[in-house]
Here is the input.
Amino acid sequence: MITFTALPTPIARAWQAGAPDAYGNPPERHVAQGTGNPCRHCLRFIPEGAGMLILAHRPFDGLHPYAETGPIFLCADACPRHEGAAMPEILRDSPDYLLKGYNAQDRIVYGTGRVVAAADVAGYAQAVFERSDVAYIHVRSARNNCYQARIDRG
Here is the structure.
């Protein structure tokens, strides 16, 4: 069993209150225009016309060669955190995603990175977790490499 893990609520609330992002900048405030702005906390699309934040996120605790930083969207107002094994809304929109397994030291486990059809995300994640050296998996955009969510063992 797997779990789709969204950004922790304390981090989301800090950014929603104006705390600096991974580059030390305040989150940019915008209004969602159309669809395609996935919130990394509720793992839903930010509704058109709703406030949203754009900020730099590094989904790792430390700085090291594998600690990628990139842009993400977040609801500007408090939203409930996605919990559980259900496929999040934001992962049902694209035809495919890049999945990469990481070890306990936050290093990519080579041989696990693969572009996977959206319908196969859960199955591929289960297969990657058969490796004992994989601690967690990142789901990223297959086109822009943007961080979407984390997958953990359930």
Remarks:
- The radius of gyration is 15 Å.
- The chain has a mean pLDDT of 96.
